[in-house]
């Protein structure tokens, strides 16, 4: 099991690299995370799971399925998350109080893990946050409770680039009761930049205090995989077209733009951003379109998006972004809330209680400028959404097949298809270059882990 001293320590990346490393040795390996919290998800056999486990499964060379992430929490506000159980939304659990909910979730978690263990030689389990959050122990189903159930050795990861890594490792270990301290068999320092010889004597001192060896120092890796919450702000802009990605507080599925970041200058536009001088404006998916529309208006970005469209800049909305570009969102069943859209597409959206999660292959009709680079292309992606949209006038006729998947009006385009900018031919048509293939990135991660992690230690603890 891979746990971390905090969120962002690198658990997901380490599991991904280990999945590929073991798989290319001929070991049947699968990833598992009992409970994930993220608005980035992928459609798999049985429904949806967190993007991190989807990537880890691809690295392992196995088909992703809902057993690998049986509980997915998708934040809808500061105090509420949609509960996805075994790939499907549970409205009952979403409405249930957080305290005590884990007892109802645990049977699904245990069943999913045991099913994976029966089908594979090794299951690599990922924790969440930190196991030392004492306020969460009574409801834990993802850290040490999972380690106990799996009888797993724990590799504890710290982000040394943030500073304080040795204190994080020691403090995490020290807060655990003795029976959980014994589960931790190794420390891993992640995101190291510099001369590793300068770390001495800290690893040895830490081992004296805890009895736990530091079994690896993983260097900072400029990998091309999405972070758990999607694209990150880059210190230096990339060459290629300039793209403004307008990210509201409930923006979702941002991971689908990571490949675009490799071939274009993608600007993550937040509260004080501007859309001046960009070649494309994108409104991504949203877990709560009504709240993101309110945010757009409060920040002034709603007016900026409309001004950009009026000046001829291409504006693309994907899923929730499509809905926000329309005239109105109706919510007769109380799914996310009613709201007026930006009025850039003559469509009306109606939410339905059931959620659509499906893999989809779409074909674009012949489109005029500025969307001609999409004309006739076939793109495979996925849909994760509530409701449907319908055109109000003929000018917003469907531009993508199957029907209802996309609408265009001049330089404004809306799509329900996720994954457009993950297609190599689309990236090449838009920016003149394609991203690094995932398999290449997985192998680079595996190479780095094999060089940095004590392989004898790993073999003993598998």
Q: What secondary-structure arrangement, pairings included, does this model have?
A:
Layout: E1 2-4, H1 11-23, E2 29-32, E3 35-37, E4 41-44, E5 47-50, H2 51-60, E6 71-77, E7 80-85, E8 88-89, H3 91-95, H4 101-119, E9 122-125, H5 144-150, E10 154-159, H6 165-175, H7 178-181, E11 184-192, H8 202-210, E12 214-219, E13 242-246, E14 251-252, H9 258-263, E15 265-269, E16 280-283, E17 285-286, H10 289-299, H11 301-310, E18 315-318, H12 320-325, E19 328-330, E20 339-340, E21 347-364, E22 378-391, E23 400-401, E24 406-409, E25 412-415, H13 424-431, H14 438-452, H15 455-461
Helix pairs in contact: 1-2, 1-14, 6-8
CATH-assigned fold name of the largest domain: Rossmann fold
Number of helices: 15
Proportion of residues in helical segments: 25-40%
Strand content: 25-35%
> What is the name of the CATH class of the largest domain?
Alpha Beta
Question: How do the strands line up in the largest sheet?
Answer: 15-13-16-18-25-24
Low-confidence stretches: none
- Going by CATH, the architecture of the largest domain would be 3-Layer(aba) Sandwich
Structural class: alpha/beta
Instruction: Summarize model confidence as the mean pLDDT.
Output: 94
Radius of gyration: 23 Å
| Main pleated sheet | 6 strands, mixed
Task: Give the CATH H-level superfamily of the largest domain.
Answer: P-loop containing nucleotide triphosphate hydrolases
Overall 3D shape: globular
Find the count of extended strands (DSSP E, 2+ residues).
25
Distance between the terminal alpha carbons, to the nearest Å? 9 Å
Taken together, the total number of domains comes to 2
